[in-house]
């Protein structure tokens, strides 16, 4: 893929260094030899600090990406929102990602990480996942490091690697827009 200039500008709907690094890594791989200006910014999610459903998590990512687009100038607006839910197979955490390029929005989701019941119960009681994991594993600010994923997988996966993979996959519609054109309401 080529770009009009030798610089790609990315704005990420978070100042969390893990999220900024994942966005830069995911998008830069499609633009080899191009300078990448990737910066985080505060972007409200419009959802709870700890989203507890799939729908709420997805909405949070989309809201953050749209906020970035409304308040800054960039080629790509990227957001990630971590959430949890209770599925028929158990409790799990995951992230939704949203990428805006112009008017085109692509939404993706990371793999699920099964959560212990005691962790999910603490989240239901109002705690945030990073804080629960810090208490459980005696760590500090794990959400800006390997995250629950790193701790529970013995560092074989990380929060950043999960976000990066989800963002790379979510780039598909933006890289091939002619294949992802949707029909109008009447199916034409």
From TrEMBL:
Signal peptide: none annotated. Keywords: Hydrolase, Magnesium, Manganese, Metal-binding, Nucleotide metabolism, Nucleotide-binding. It comes from the Bacteria. Residues 13-174 form the Non-canonical purine NTP phosphatase/PRRC1 domain. Pfam families: NTPase_I-T (PF01931). Homodimer. This is Inosine/xanthosine triphosphatase.
């Amino acid at each position: 893929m080529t770009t009009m200039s030798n610089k790609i500008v990315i704005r990420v709907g978070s100042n969390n260094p893990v999220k900024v690094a994942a966005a830069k890594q995911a998008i830069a791989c499609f633009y080899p030899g191009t300078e990448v200006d990737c910066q985080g910014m505060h972007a409200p999610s419009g959802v709870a600090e700890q989203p507890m459903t799939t729908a709420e998590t997805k909405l949070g990512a989309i809201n953050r990406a749209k906020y970035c687009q409304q308040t800054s100038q960039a080629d790509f607006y990227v957001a990630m929102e971590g959430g949890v839910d209770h599925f028929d197979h158990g409790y799990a955490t995951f992230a939704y990602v949203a990428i805006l390029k112009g008017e085109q929005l692509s939404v993706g989701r990371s793999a699920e990480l099964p959560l212990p019941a005691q962790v999910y119960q603490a989240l239901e009681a109002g705690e945030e996942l990073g804080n629960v994991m810090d208490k459980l594993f005696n760590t500090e600010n794990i959400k800006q490091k390997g995250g629950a994923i790193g701790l529970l997988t013995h560092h074989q996966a990380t929060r950043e690697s999960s976000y990066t993979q989800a963002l790379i996959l979510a780039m598909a519609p933006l890289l091939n827009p002619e294949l992802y054109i949707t029909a109008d309401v009447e199916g034409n």
